[in-house]
Specification:
By secondary structure, this protein is of the alpha+beta class. It has four helices and seven strands.
């Protein structure tokens, strides 16, 4: 057991995720992004390291709002579960990420090249940090790209269920 397991807290996950989303409502509105939550969880309470989870989720929602490029930009956060896992999907309706960048975006200091233009500030650490945070939580992050947009999927083991 690593150190993060000592800081597990009983958390109402839908409420926690809603609070993180609410913290972005103003920024999303300023950028014209519709930000919504779709809770499909059967359970609500789980044991997780709240601080680490919130950092990972915050980073992904922040990225989704910053980088979504669409006529009517939308970011949807969906909570689902299976017998073994809790899944938190952050889906945007922006341009699908180009194939050559999909594996590299999780690398430390990697930023997608946009010529000499960096209209969004950053250091290329965000997704790398989320990857490390998810490892600490014994979870994972994956990217699914479709013509509808980009989805970052956080998966956490349900073995920590507190319900």
């Amino acid at each position: 057991m690593d150190g993060s397991q000592f800081y597990l807290q009983k958390v109402n996950l839908p409420v926690l995720v809603a609070e993180v989303i609410d913290s972005f409502k103003l920024r999303a509105a300023q950028r014209g992004v519709q930000l919504t939550l779709d809770n499909k969880l059967h359970s609500e309470t789980f044991l997780i390291n709240q601080q680490i989870f919130v950092m990972a989720l915050h980073n992904l929602i922040d990225n989704a709002i910053k980088y979504v490029e669409a006529e009517n930009p939308k970011v949807l956060v969906t909570l689902t579960e299976s017998d073994a896992d809790i899944k938190i999907a952050i889906m945007d309706n922006g341009h699908p990420l180009e194939t050559e960048y999909r594996d590299k975006i999780f690398d430390k200091f990697y930023r997608i090249p946009r010529g000499d233009v960096h209209d969004v500030k950053g250091h290329g650490l965000g997704l790398y940090i989320v990857t490390q945070l998810m490892k600490t939580l014994r979870g994972s992050i994956t990217l699914h790209v479709s013509p509808l947009g980009n989805e970052f999927l956080l998966t956490l083991p349900k073995t920590n269920s507190a319900s």
